Amino acid sequence: MSELNISNTVAGNGTSLKITIAGKLTIENAAELQTNLLGNCNKMENIQLDISAVDEIDLAGMQLICSACRTNLDAKRQFNFTGCISEAVKSAISAVGLQRQITCKHNADLPCLWCGGIN
Questions:
Q1: Structural domains counted in the chain
Q2: What's the CATH number where 24 sits?
Q3: DSSP state of 89
Q4: pLDDT on residue 81
Q5: Separation CA 30–CA 62 (nearest Å)
Q6: Can you give the pLDDT at residue 26?
């Protein structure tokens, strides 16, 4: 799979959004996810991101997800992963050293989203 595929599912009387991402989340196509996040998240109270089918992610993709997490936390919205984290994402987390991050200063010093933190 080489393209980025994004699907949105709204639940909870329109207050919850599940964003499912599959394929390649890299700098070449991160703008597509950014547009989706900016256009849909501000209407929701709870955003769940399913990245179980991401088969490639780079630092730009990871930064985009961190930015979305921070933006939603600042707006008092819940933002978290749902489902399993793909092996490609786990490898990226290890490669950039995020598995060593204990807490996130943007998340009330709770565990970082990448390290199993729940927002």
A1: 1
A2: 3.30.750.24
A3: H
A4: 87
A5: 10
A6: 94
C-alpha 26/C-alpha 111 separation (Å) is 25
* Sheet strands side by side (includes 46-57): 4-11, 16-25, 46-57, 78-81
pTM, whole model, 2 decimals?
0.84
Tell how strand 16-25 and strand 4-11 pair up. antiparallel
Tokens encoding 51 = 């990245």
Per DSSP, what are the bridge partners of residue 53?
A: 22
Enter the tokens of residue 33. 């996810």
* Residue for token pair 């992610």: 57
In sequence order, what DSSP letters do the residues of 28-40 get, joined into one string? TTHHHHHHHHHHH
CB–CB of 87/95 below 8 Å? no
Q: Are strands 16-25 and 46-57 parallel, antiparallel or unpaired?
A: parallel
pLDDT at site 25: 94
Summarize pLDDT for 69-117 with one digit per residue, the tens: 888 888 888 888 888 889 999 898 888 877 665 677 776 666 677 766 5
- What would the two tokens of residue 2 be? 């080489």
Q: Which two tokens stand for residue 22?
A: 């599959």
User: Which range of residues forms the domain containing residue 21?
Assistant: 4-115
Evaluate whether 38 touches 72 at the Cβ level (below 8 Å).
no
